[in-house]
Amino acid sequence: MTADATIRLLTRYYDAFNAGDGAGMLDCLAQDVAHHVNEGGVRHGKALFAEFNAHMARTYRETLTDIVIMATPDGSRAAAEFIVKGTYLATDEGLPPARGQTYRLPGGAFMEVRGGLITRVTTYYNLADWLSQVA
Known about the structure:
This protein has one domain (3-134): Nuclear Transport Factor 2, Chain: A (Roll), CATH 3.10.450.50. It is built from four helices and six strands. It has helices spanning 3-19, 22-27, 46-59, 127-134, and strands at 29-36, 42-44, 60-71, 77-88, 102-114, 117-125. It has a six-stranded mixed β-sheet with strand order 2-1-6-5-4-3, with helices on both faces. Strand 5 (102-114) and strand 6 form a beta hairpin. The longest helix is centred in the N-terminal third of the chain and has 17 residues, at 3-19. It is globular and about 45 Å long.
């Protein structure tokens, strides 16, 4: 796979995210995807990724803007930087109560790609920044 093909794949993935298209996101992932959640554990497989996305859709409404995607020349690894604009819809366990608070924070992700599909998604954002915005 080339860098250009990987950038197109990640663009499709983030376009699906912004459209609220969980199935479209799953189409970009390998069956054995490893999802490294910010401040959390690793979820293995598309089924757990889909569960996570369903939870997120109930709890948060988010859009990513200012997305910049970079890839290695062979397309096997990529990174994305973006701004998360969101609304906290429902209280998430262990976090402050949700009251429709809005937030805006920088985030990023690192990905591995094999066979035209994403095999690893590692997401990062500053949890302390998010907490201060929704407190």
